[in-house]
Amino acid sequence: MNAWLMDRLRQKLSDLPRPAKVAVMVAGDVVLVPVALWLAFALKYDSLNYGFERDPWMYAGAIVASIAIFAWLQLYRAVVRYIGPKAIAAIIAGSVGSALVVYMLGRTLAWSEVPASVAVIYAMLALFWIAGSRFSARRVLLPGRPVGELVVIYGAGDAGVRLLRSLGSGSGSRRQPSSTTRRCFRAE
Q: Contact at 8 Å (CB) between 110 and 58?
């Protein structure tokens, strides 16, 4: 993708109001969760059609459970640019919780039972895809910066800590204190 197109996409996404950004994340999850469940059935039974023959309420239950858990754990409130360990924990909890709901629905209400292996495969696929979508969005939204740029963060409190973390999250970057002040770092 060329730089002009990436800059334009970055600007369009950054300019969206917060509710629209949340809607984009929820819409992505509404697509990724059932695809992960279908693929779990396909991988387990070695058939692309087997997942389509399942109870549609199981797919709806997986979507509702995932979104409810993600919202309860405030994953949709997390700023994608500053995604960290708390968001990863929410994604893991949402994926595992959704897999448990699918397993329980498969044991109680579904047309045919859902094996535990399908729930485990689904949890792993959902975890990787949802986390991958968040980190991909982070990659798109964080523009590259020149290596070795001098950065001073002074008196910013928690926002300064988040900024410092985001500056140090680039590939191959490390923070070094400058010799003149303790709050001056060189990103290399």
A: yes
Contact partners, residue 117, CB within 8 Å, separation at least 6: 44
Summarize pLDDT for 27-62 with one digit per residue, the tens.
Answer: 999 999 999 999 999 999 998 888 777 778 888 888
Let me know the angle formed at the C-alpha of 15 by 9 and 12, rounded to the nearest 5 degrees: 15
Measured distance CA(129)–CA(105) in Å, rounded: 22
Average pLDDT value for residue range 160-179: 60
Confidence (pTM): 0.71
Domain boundaries, the chain: 3-141, 150-187
CB crowding 106-136: b at 16 or more within 10 Å, else e: beeebeeebeeebbebbbebbbebbbebbee
